[in-house]
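Why does residue order matter? Because the sequence determines the fold. Keep that principle in mind as you read this record.
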Amino acid sequence: MSLRDGTLGQKGLFGLLVAVTALGMVLAAADKLLRVGTANVGWTMDGLYVSPTHDDASDAGLRGGGGRALRINGVEVPPSYGRGHTIGPNVREEIGASNTIVVRSPDGEEREVTLVARPWVWQDFVFTQGASDVIGLFFILVGFTVFALRPYEAPSWALLALCSVVGGTLLVLFIPIDNAHPWNTAYFLALVSFTPYVPIHTLLAFPVVHPLLLRRPRLLGLIYGAGVVHGGANFAAWYGHYPRLLPYPRTIGSAILLMVMAVFIARCAWLAWRSSDRLVAQRARILCAGVVVGIIPFALVQFARESFGALEIDSRFLIWPLGVFVLALARVALRPALTNARIAVRKAILYTAAVAVLSVVAFLLVSVRPYAVAALLFPLLYVWPRFEARLERRLYPQRARFPELLREVGAELATAASIDAVLDVVAAAPARLCDARGTVAFLLPDAVGPHAHVRAAGATPPPVDDLDGELIVQLLRATRREMLRAELAVEPQYANVRAECEAGFDRLGAALLLPLVHEQSVVGGMAVGARASDDPYETAEIDALSTVGQQGVQALMRVAATERLRAREREFADLKRFFPPQIIDQVMARGGAAELGSQRKLVTVLFADLRGFTSFSDSVEPEEVIATLDEYHTAMGARIAEFAGTLEHFAGDGFMVFFNDPVDQPDHVERAARLALAMRGDVERLREGWTRKGYAIHAGMGIHSGYATCGFIGYEGRRDYAVIGNVTNLAARLSDAAGPGEILISARSYADLDDRFAAEPAGDLTLKGFHQPQAAVRLLALAPGPARSA
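Structure:
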């Protein structure tokens, strides 16, 4: 599914979150641009809490936790002083003016600090807002990246909402929030209002989607509706219209956030230790660590400050750990597969060691000459890629051989001569590439033929008849993407069919199911078993196996095309026995011999045989008989092809030809008559040589038109194309009755000829097998002349 596939409502909600994020980025950028060059007094305030705004203020005494403001220029800061002012009362804001602020540090010590107002510069923004900007943009990047990769899924929505709200809040965390900046204030209050409720959405979607969210999706409306109410309370409290009897809404928000995080940790801890699925347990542990490290400190400090005025810690120190939480969410959302923890830890340790060495070298170089650290860039750019490549080869030795192994598999596929041979190579490849315990490679019915094909390596092949009915195979055809058995427990789309899908994986003995795709359609699949080391299949292995699968598809299509070509050649050779080339071309264009079913049709049949052939064959040697027949058949065969007749058979000195099948020939009677006259002329030329040799041979022919059943008869390997019906009998009897050099044509057939065909009556002939005399005409010649009227 892509971003374009969403409904109008989904696209509208996505656009709203984009707009919220974009507005936060615009407000943050505009604030920086407007404040550059204005007075920076050295601190900013969040209620009574003071934070330094440049490094000089930190060095002068506002270092670290800052503190609570007590007096500014000798004027007490009232205990009721709250948000709406960012620098406090009685402050001289002119550039060059001196201000003295007395703060009480978190350890209880009072400290007096005198600072001179100086212009804001970009370094001050980095010092003050760098952490919040970087982590805020990181939230936004992660949220939109996950949503782009897996759009409109329940976890993606939850992560996008969380990252949009938290990222936007972090971007405007240190910009002026007061009555002089209404846009900043409205935006900040709106996001802060939703901050306690978006994590509820996240709680329902991670580490696995809660069934309640699937069954009651409208529950999200209630959650975010509470956010709207909370927002109204926040706005009312800001402008002084909130009832005094109720707690301050920001305190309520902090309390809700802390409770949601506690429930989140409880759910993750429960799944981490009690879930029977390894992937669910691992996802829960990752998120549990992310919440404890990244969210709980921030939520605790905010709650303590809002509720009790305690834990006066610089917020900038609490922002960086938030990145750990968003990394945990991204890891869970984007990598549902298990990872090889042993190799990941080793890789992290080696990278850390390498970075530590580089950091020490950089520190030593900086202590000598500040610009000397640039000298690190040259060896770093050259050495680091090689270091990383060697590390990959050491940690993943089999991956390093992927190019070589893929070439070997490709060579084997190129020489495979049958569909089963191709599937054998595909089924054996996962064991060579990834140490898979077994693989089933299958081709679905109608992919390259009417039947399914299944081959297995190290596994028991499933029943062929049941393959297309497997639910996981149907899902594979619908999604056209790999399916991991480990995903079944955590992906919401499998919630209603999880048990049936797991049973399907069991029957195939698979941990990974890959599609074989041809022209955007799934034609088969690879059911890959677990690895011998029990390590999970990671992206590199899945990509390599997918490459093998697509190589296999290309080989299958090549084999299928070759088999179709050979079948077509065999079919063409078969048809050459009956039809002339021009008829064959038309038959093949209509689908080949498979389209030549039995049919009832009007045809014209021509029989011809040699008179005196029996006495001739008794008086000469067999070699002379064969040579004479060959001469005769060659001449007659050329004429049959010339007039596009269909040869049913040769029978010694005779043969039978018919017209108007398998292709329509409206002039079929005329074709038969022309063929008979042409063959009689050819026989006359041949008789000149035969007479000189003493052979008394001549030809007689018979023609009749009528309805007959046309089609193939025989069995596989020995078939004839024939016409069956009374029309053939009458044509054969007319041929028997014809004298030497005569062409007898039935009156019915002659009625379809025009006056160009000269003929004379032959009378009513008594023919064997017919109870009534048959009227016949003796065909003489083809003469030019006007056509007869019907």
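The CA atoms of residues 54 and 560 lie 73 Å apart.
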